[in-house]
Structures are given as C-alpha cells and as structure tokens.
Amino acid sequence: MFAKFLTTIVTVLAGIGAALILYWLLNKLAELMPSKYEEKLKPYFYILPAYTAIAIWLLYPAVQTVVYSFKTKVGFPAESWVGTQNYSDLLGSEQFRQTLINTLLWLAVVPVVTVILGLAIATLTDRLKPRAEYLVKTIIFMPMAISMVGAATVWALVYDYRNSGNQVGIQNAVWTSIGGEPVAWLQTSDFKLNSFLLMVMLLWSTIGFGMVLLSAAVKSVPTETLEAARIDGANERQIFFRVIVPQIWPTVITVFITTLIGTMKVFDIVFVMTNGNFNTNVIANEFWLQFFNNNNKGAAAAIVVMLMVAILPIMYYQARSFRKQEAYG
Amino acid sequence: MTTAATPPAPTVPKSRRKTSEPREGNPASAGWFTKTTLGLIVFLWVVPLVGVIITSFRPRDDAATTGWWRVFIEPSLLGNLTIDNYKRAIENTNLGEGFINSLAIALPATFIPLLVAAFAAYAFTFMDFWGRDILFITIVSLLVVPNFVSFVPMLKLYRDIGIGGSFPAVWLFHVAFGMSLGIYILRNFMSTLPRTVIESAKIDGASHFQTFFRLVLPMSAPALASIAIFQFLWVWNDLLVALVFLGPGDKAPMTVSISQLLGQQGQNQELVTASGMFSMLVPILVFLSLQRFFVRGLTAGAVKG
Fold first, then answer.
1. How confident is the model over B168-224, as pLDDT tens digits?
2. Using CA atoms, how far apart are residues B121 and B129, in angstroms rounded to an integer?
3. How close B284 gets to chain A, by Cα (Å)?
C-alpha cells in the first residue's frame, strides 16, 4: 500500500511537472526566434498545447469514428467495409428503437422539469430570509457534488425490493404501509415507470444546478421593473410571467440546453442501476453494450455518429449566440 | 454559455448576501405556502441521503432485516451502530486503493487542463494574432461535444503507442475535454481585468511569461478556483472515462469499484452504502467549503462538454 502510494505521488508530480516544463520550453523556443517574429509567434505557442489536444482528442477521433461506423470489427484482422449496414442493423432492431424512444423520453422530461422546478425553487427561496435561503439552496444544490455512482448507492436503497418480510427500501415501506403489495420498482416497465424512477435520480442532481443559475438571474431583475408593474396594478402571477420570466429567458435557455446535453449523454445511472435491462436502455448505455459487451465497434461508432449529428445544431446555436453576444455585449 | 442575463465572472468576489441586498425591499415575503412547499422539497431531497448515512453505520443483520428509519422508532437499534462497514469496505473491497487512484487521476486531471486553459485564455485576451476570433469560436462550439466521440479511436491509439491503461492516458483525455470550458470562463474573466496594469508591466519590460505568472494568474485566482473545483468534481465523479481507459483493476478509481460492488447487489447493502458515503466525502467537503467559488463558476456561464 505504501509503495503504491509513493509511486502514485511520483507519477502525479511527474505529470504536473511535465506540463509546466512544456510551457517553459515553448516560451523559450519563442524567445529564441528573431525578435521580429517573436511577438507574432508567441500567441501561437501559448495556444499550441490546447489546439494540439483538440486535434488529437477531438478532430482525429471524430473523423475516425465516422470511418469506423462504415466498417466492422475495428482493430481486428476482420476489419472490412460494410457500407451503411451498421446503421441499418441498429435502426432495424426493435430493441434499438426502444432505446431511442427511452432516450427521447429522458430528453422530453428531464430538461423541462429541471427548468420548471429550478425556477420554482429559485423564486420561492428568494422570499426567505438570507440565512434560510442559503441553507435551503445548499441542501438542494449539494447532490450535484455527488457522483452518479454515489447517487446510485443512495437510490438503490430507496428503491430496494424484498418479496417478503420487512421492506428496507423506503419507497416500498411507504407503499406497503398504505396497503400495496411490494413492487420491484426498477423491473416494472409498465408506463415506463422504471425509466421515470431513474430520471428522478438525474433530476435530484440537476435541479440544484438549474436553481443556482435561475436564482442568480431572478435576483438580477431590476426591482424598479417589479415596482412599476405593481403600481400599474399587476398581481403577483402577472408580475412573474410577464415581467420576471421574459427578463430571465436567456438563462432559462442556458439551463435548458445544458441539461439537454447532459441528458443526452446520461450513462452512469442506467449502467449502474439496471444496465439497460427491463426496457430502461438509453443511447449512451447502448454504446457501452455494443462497445464492450458485444465488441461491435462498428455499431458503437455508428451510435456516436448519430449522437454527433444530433449535437450539431446545438453547436451551431452556441457559436451563433456567442457571436451575437460579442457583437452587442 | 453566458447569456445576457448571466453576467461574466465578476471581478470582485461578491458575497451571496450582498447580491440579495438590493432586493431587500421586495414586498413579497415567505408565507405559509412558500415555507411548506420548500420544507417538503428539502425533506424529499434529504431523506434518501439520511437513509444512506444511517445504513452505512448499521450492522449487516440490522440493515438486511429492518428499514433504516427504525432507528428513530426503536432507540435500542441505535446502540448497534458501528463503523465496521467502513473498515470492511476499505479492507475487503479495495476502496482504500480506489481512493488513492481517484486522487491520482483527479489532481493532475484538474491541474493540467487549468494550466493549458490559462495560457490559451491569456493569449486570447492579451495578445493579437491572426485567426484569433475563429479559433475562439471553435472552442465555444466544442463545449458541447460529448466525450464518447473519442473512445473507440483513442483506445486504439493509446494501445498502439503503449500508454493504454495508464494514468497519463486518462489525464490527457480529461485535459482535452476539460480545458474548453476553462478557456471560455477564463477569457471572460481576464477580459475584465484592468488593462492598464498589464500595459504598464509591459512598459516596465516584463515578458509575457512574467506577466502571465506574476500578474494575470494571481489576479485570476477566483476564476481559477471555480474552474478547478468544477473540473475536480467532474473528474472525481466520472465513471465512463475511467471504465473505458482503466477498467476494473489495480488502477480503478472509487467510482469504478463501487459500480462493480453495486452490480453484485443483494446482501451487501451495508458495504455498498459505506463505500458510497466514503466516495462522497471528498466532493461534499470540497463543495461545502468552496461553494461560493463553485456557484460563481457556474453563473459565469457553463456548458459542460
């Protein structure tokens, strides 16, 4: 244990040191240039590591993934072109269509609920005294610091099921105490019940995030606009929907998009809780199953390509709204 | 993404109470409806956590036969509480090793992206060069690219160059996907720094390297802190990247070993809860002690890729 600890520390320090030395060397290299070029080239030296990383870890793999998606069994002697077969196999399978439907359900539910509940909590806590507000917000925000694996240990206990005897999971305990039969919650896919229960876990950890952003926005709404509306005879509901919401709308969009992207990639929860069984599979977990369990790298790559295509409009939107903001902001 | 309503990272750290001050005159104050609703929400938020905390201290037989809430009803059960689960989890399920591995992954994977991001942000803010805007917009749009775009090719590449299954393989991966957000937030922050100070350093003969380390980095401390916390939590809590590049084994971080433990399910609930609690300890401490920075980082505009 101690030896391992020591080697680990050495590795960590070596890694950090190497990063520092790299920049020192780059800077020295730029200074060795004739001074005419030095000023011109230095910025490129400073951003070089960042863009090298982007080229190696993003661009190269993105291109490769597209290529792989038209091949089969990547990395083995059997590698060969299969045209669009990976795609047609995936889209043709009933099981994959179910996975897509589940993912769409997650996308339809989680971002909207995060925005609505986040905004509701942000508005309500705004009325509390500062100390109480801080406490409530801390409690609701805290799950964000907890890993999904940690959250799984929390919620596995909530959804625990025993077919007889005392229930140790609180959900079944409440359910049986009001007269129900014990339910194996995560295995019940009627009305997508188990998928919804998994979504609760994600909501538990993302609503705090939405609340923090929306709360900052609500607080930045100028008080004069609220007072003006009150003098004009608006009631609280009108003030909320007609004065506050329009002013915080950009933040609402931010929270929505961030949560949307997070939900698209949701993996840990499903992987740990059901591994996609009982009709709870989502696209990220399907990627994992194809990748490692089936060793079907071609299908895994095809899934990633579909996901990239879905993300493209959001990338475009990001770049466009950034440009706008720079222009006016 | 920063939008009109979420201001870029403020120059002066503001305390939370101060931000609410201008609204002290808000005539709407908490009535019974507000208090009950919030009370209920807080209750729902906390109950699952309380369950885990209590279960992690209960002996195996108690945890397997009675619900954790019984300890509130039958005080005799309180006497059974023990830290045995934690001892066993650390000894039997290589959780201690997992803890060291988690640190070994998270520390460099926090520091290196921060350094890369700081240098790039400095260049974007204080230096003029051809292609600056388009390069920066590339960063902004890459914020949303999901990291499993890279898994299949990188796994192959890592194997080919012989760093497969090593810590540096994971660090470098996190550098690539963590720095975009860092560059974005830091540039927003650095552009609020007083330019005159940087100009006068230049006149005094300071090189960019000196200006960066002696002036800009110290002045950017609040933004650096918030990115560091963000990235640290992100890496510490990550399961997928560790699973792909390290897998279960002697380099596995805690998330991987706990997911393994959860996979076995069944009778070892007390071990699972103890391990879970153990893994949450560091992030919760980081979160509670540095919450202010964390919140500021988020409101400075964050879309995690």
1. 999 999 999 999 989 988 998 898 888 888 889 989 988 899 999 999 999 998 889
2. 13
3. 6
* B124 vs B133: CA distance, rounded Å: 8
Contact A150 B156 (CB under 8 A): no
Tell me the pLDDT tens digit for each residue of B15-40.
Answer: 333 344 444 445 457 788 899 999 99
3-state secondary structure of A220: coil
Question: Which amino acid is located at B256 in the chain?
Answer: V
Ranges of chain A whose pLDDT falls below 70: 73-78, 328-329
CA pseudo-torsion sign A259, A263, A268, A274: positive
Are B105 and B235 in contact by the 8 Å Cβ rule? The answer is: yes
* Whole-number average pLDDT of chain B: 83
Q: What are A80's strand-pairing partners?
A: A72
- Minimal-distance CA residue of chain A relative to B272: A153
d(CA B220, CA B217): 5
DSSP string, A163-180: SSS---SHHHHHHHHTTP
More confident call, B1 vs B21: B21
- As beta bridge partners, residue A72 has A80
Nearest to B172 by CA among B235, B222, B240, B220: B235
Asked if B154 and A69 count as a contact pair (C-beta separation under 8 A), the reply is: no
pLDDT at B11: 33
Tell me what ipTM this predicted complex has.
0.90
For residue A156, give the nearest of B45, B262, B283 by CB distance: B262
Closest CA in chain B for residue A155: B48
8 Å CB contact between A110 and A118: no
B63 beta partners: none
* Token duo for residue A315: 């990338």
Dist CA B245 CA B257 (whole Å)? 14
Instruction: Report yes or no: B281 and B210 within 8 Å, Cβ to Cβ.
Output: no
User: Count of alpha carbons within 13 Å of B249, Cβ hemisphere only?
Assistant: 10
The closest CB to that of B5, out of A46, A143, A251, belongs to: A251
CB contact under 8 Å between B239 and A223, yes or no, is: no
Residue with tokens 């080919």, as numbered in its chain: B160
Set of chain A residues whose Cβ sits within 8 Å of the Cβ of B302: 258
Angle at CA B296, nearest 5°, toward B295 and B299?
85
Strand, helix or coil for residue A117:
helix
Flag whether residue B290 sits within 8 Å of chain A, measured between CB atoms. no
Q: Is B144 helix (H, G, I), strand (E, B) or coil?
A: coil
C-alpha to C-alpha distance for A56 and A207, rounded to whole angstroms: 34
Contact yes or no for A65 and B124 at CB 8 A: no
